Amino acid sequence: MSLSELSRSVDGYVVLVTGAASGMGEATAKLFASEGARVAAVDVNEEGLQRVVSDIEAAGKPVRGWTLDLTDADAIKRVTDEIAAHFGGLDMLINNAGISIFSPIDGEEYEPAWDMTLNVLLTAHTRTIRAALPYLRQSKNPRIVNIASTEGLGATKFGSPYTAAKHGVIGLTRSLAVELGPEGITVNCICPGPIRTGMTEAIPEDQKQTYAHRRVALKRYAEPEEVAHGTLNFCLPASGFMTGAALPVDGGLTIKNA
Ligand code: NAI
User: Fold this and answer.
1) With bands split at pLDDT 50, 70 and 90, how would you rate the model's confidence at 1?
2) For residue range 128-164, what is the model confidence (pLDDT) as tens digits?
3) Burial class (CB in 10 A: 0-12, 13-18, 19+), 11
4) What's the 30 CA to ligand 1 centre distance in angstroms?
5) Known catalytic membership, residue 221
6) What DSSP designation does 160 have?
7) Model-level pTM?
8) Among protein residues, the one whose CA lies closest to atom 24 of ligand 1
């Protein structure tokens, strides 16, 4: 038996994390920093971003924050170029930022909800990927991880813009895995179940417990760091043969029939 020669380290690699000011993006930025990656933290929430950047700096790790609204196509390109110039390249892109707006299909607010949701959750992913691609092509360990959802595999009523976007994220992931595979760029996505983040903060604790007991095999919400570890796994040099996957990190939600 020979011992593994595949690296389980992201030390020194440059990672761009969108939505890094809160929840899973914050946990991902902090986890990658603790593993030695150089972190470009991006978010529209300037104050939250500054807090996360300060936390990472206080731990003595290399990080810089960029305030960016992902609905702004020109800004995505400009910021991605700035990140690559600042760090001398870009190896890994984590498309994590998100919003959730619920509306019935015949609701008055449906059209703006649809436009905004598709823009932030799906169109922005294509733009960050297009902006990052020239740099990923120069990398020894090029990785793209998109954060989809269990809503990419199933559906919840009144969530059709979100559900359509997340199904789209899985489709985008699979298509680009095929397209970019010959270049050695892996493209995967994660389908988180219920996670304690800013997005789910307003759901009362008793509703969270009831939902988790009824639907989740592990009978609980997860902490954002538990999802960040899935993302990290996709980014390891040792994970170079994993591509096109849609990995549930959902406590068994999607496989539980009863
Ligand atoms: P969160 O609300 O804690 O964090 C989302 C971050 O995205 C925020 O910091 C926000 O400022 C940022 N963001 C939103 N719009 C933006 C824009 N236009 N430009 C730049 N940044 C923007 O939410 P959470 O839960 O950490 O969400 C992360 C991802 O996980 C999202 O894609 C979400 O859809 C997905 N997800 C969340 C689940 C949950 O239970 N919390 C379950 C499944 C998927």
Assistant:
1) low
2) 999 999 999 999 999 999 999 999 999 999 999 999 9
3) exposed
4) 16
5) no
6) H
7) 0.98
8) 23
